[in-house]
Amino acid sequence: MSSSTLMDAPAYDPTRDRIIKASLITVVVLAIAGFLIGFGGFVAGHGWFFSNFGYEHKVNRFFEALEAKDYKKAYALYENDDQWEQHPDKFGYPLNRFIEDWTTHSPVNGPIREHHVDVSKSDGSGNFGTGIIVAVRVNGNHKLFMYVNRADGTMTWPAPHELQY
After folding, report:
1. H helices within the chain, ranges in order?
2. Cβ neighbourhood burial of 10 (10 Å; 0-12, 13-18, 19+)
3. Cα 136 to Cα 30, 59, 82, 91, 119, distances in angstroms
4. Whether residue 150 sits in one domain with residue 75
5. Is 121 part of a structural domain of the chain?
6. pTM
7. Are residues 39 and 120 in the same domain?
8. How many domains is the chain partitioned into structurally?
9. 74/20 same-domain check
10. Which of 8, 39, 88, 142 is least enclosed, having the fewest CB within 10 Å?
């Protein structure tokens, strides 16, 4: 059995210490960034880790189509089916009724001229909910709450709940 002494210790390697220090700093920075992004999305009203952005974007495109009077595109977004014209009987909500509901009998009593997506919130069961409620300010001061179903991407108005913000 040999005994080792300090004289036999390996030489000091500053590179190893720098790698360990850099690794620890990286882990701490990534943990803080992950927390800020995750919680920041929730606080800003866009869902944990900004998970609702895609749904907000879809609702935004829907209202852009309504403003442009492109009702076929708006209907396709509402029903989440770009090929809806190939099977219009599939839906219980016909295009003519949709156009009437979003123009003559719209929730803002007239055509949609301008909009702004304000916030969104997950709704329903599960970590990220079964759907998203998206709050939209239309024609200046009318608040509308659209519901987007996570499972099939379809939209519903009115949403089952109104958001307080």
Report:
1. 14-43, 53-67, 71-79, 95-101
2. exposed
3. 33, 8, 23, 25, 7
4. yes
5. yes
6. 0.76
7. no
8. 2
9. no
10. 8
41 close to 49: Cβ distance less than 8 angstroms: yes
Sheet of 155-156, strand order: 115-123, 131-138, 142-149, 155-156
Once rounded to an integer, what is the mean pLDDT over residues 9-25?
88
| Statement: residue 21 has pLDDT above 80 | yes
What pLDDT, on a 0 to 100 scale, did the predictor assign at position 3? Answer: 65
What burial class does residue 119 get, using C-beta atoms within 10 Å of its C-beta: 0-12 exposed, 13-18 middle, 19+ buried?
middle
Please, how many CA atoms are within 13 Å of residue 117, restricted to the half-sphere of its CB? 23
Q: Do 121 and 67 belong to one domain?
A: yes
Q: Looking up tokens 């800003």, which residue turns up?
A: 44
The two most distant CA atoms of the chain are separated, in Å, by: 96
Burial 71-94, CB ≥16 within 10 A → b, else e: bebbbbbbbebeebeeeeeebeee
Domain range for 36 is 14-43
